[in-house]
Specification:
- This is Tight adherence protein C.
- The chain has 300 residues and is mainly α.
- It contains twelve helices and no strands.
- Among the domains are: 55-144, no CATH class; 145-258.
- It has helices at 2-25, 30-39, 51-69, 76-84, 92-111, 118-164, 169-179, 185-199, 204-215, 218-233, 237-266, 268-299.
- It is elongated and about 155 Å long.
- The termini are far apart.
């Protein structure tokens, strides 16, 4: 018993000495203290949520719950159209559904204030309110495609320059994306998406095929076909890019010439409907007035 008592006392004293000396022995080095001072943040762990964000989240949650109660699943085609329009936020689908639901109600409310034929105007404005978001999305998608199509030649020229300077295609893609962030933000988004997908492990061809499917632009589809042929036949990427850039420039010039040739036909309708009547009035009005004056004098 005495031996056990002495061992317990010794162990207790050892633990006490260890606890007292631990702050000194385990104290971090000056370098570690400096690193801790650098990485330590004094900001609050939680961000302050404003009232506007709370209201927006509440509206989106109500729309999401309503869609779930109505049994309306996520529309894959609508989600694809939103991606084509460049709307990639998670809440975009809920916002579009809420707008598409609120616009007909607003149309009915506005049509109820029209005193004449109220039922017709309520129905007509409700239909217009339902179709307005879809029409806006179509116009936004078409405008974005047009902007991306116009920026493709500049993007290809920069890619050729970067690859010719010794960069690989992926590194050149990152460089071109950073250079076009201000002048062509739409194509910059697509190039950043390709870069992120490749970093996540997606093959290069699949990433570019995703861009072609999202944008539905023929130039991107041709670019994917060029990359496939380059990998299949071993063609130098610089030579393939140079030829493809020249073809895109030629197509762009041909489209401009085609648009210029169509103006001769399109200008006929304004000439016939607007300009020629005014010219006839200016030329024939004095003669008609003179003839009328002559007949009046003959009558007297």
């Amino acid at each position: 018993m005495d031996v056990l008592l002495y061992l317990a006392i010794t162990f207790t004293i050892f633990l006490a000495i260890a606890l007292l000396s631990a702050p000194v022995v385990l104290r971090p080095s000056p370098e570690a203290q400096r690193i801790l001072e650098v990485v330590t943040s004094n900001r609050a762990d939680r961000r302050t949520i404003r009232g506007k964000e709370l209201i927006t989240d509440g509206i989106l949650k109500a729309g999401r719950d309503l869609r779930a109660r109505l049994g309306m699943a996520e529309n894959v085609k609508l989600k694809k159209r939103l991606l084509e329009a460049g709307l990639r936020d998670k809440s975009t689908l809920d916002i579009f559904f809420a707008v598409q639901l609120a616009c007909p109600l607003l149309g009915c409310f506005a049509g109820s204030f029209i005193p004449d034929n109220t039922a017709f105007w309520v129905f007509a404005l409700a239909v217009v309110g339902y179709m307005a978001p879809d029409f806006w999305l179509t116009k936004k998608t078409s405008k974005r495609r047009h902007v991306i199509r116009r920026s493709i030649p500049d993007c290809l020229d920069l890619l050729v320059i970067c690859v010719d300077a010794g960069l690989g295609l992926d590194q050149a893609l990152i460089r071109v994306s950073s250079e076009l962030s201000v002048s062509h933000p739409e194509i910059n988004e697509e190039l950043n998406q390709v870069n992120l997908e490749q970093r996540a492990g997606k093959p290069r061809l699949e990433a570019w095929q995703g861009v072609a499917e999202r944008t539905q632009i023929e130039e991107f589809k041709a670019f994917v076909s060029m990359l496939v042929q380059t990998d299949k036949f071993g063609t130098p990427i610089l030579k393939a890019l140079s030829q493809f850039s020249e073809e895109i420039r030629m197509k762009r010039r041909q489209h401009a010439e085609e648009a210029a040739a169509k103006t001769k036909i399109k200008i006929i309708f304004p000439l016939v409907l607007c300009i020629f009547p005014c010219v006839f009035i200016v030329l024939l009005a004095p003669a008609i007035l003179s003839i009328m004056t002559g007949f009046k004098a003959m009558g007297h």
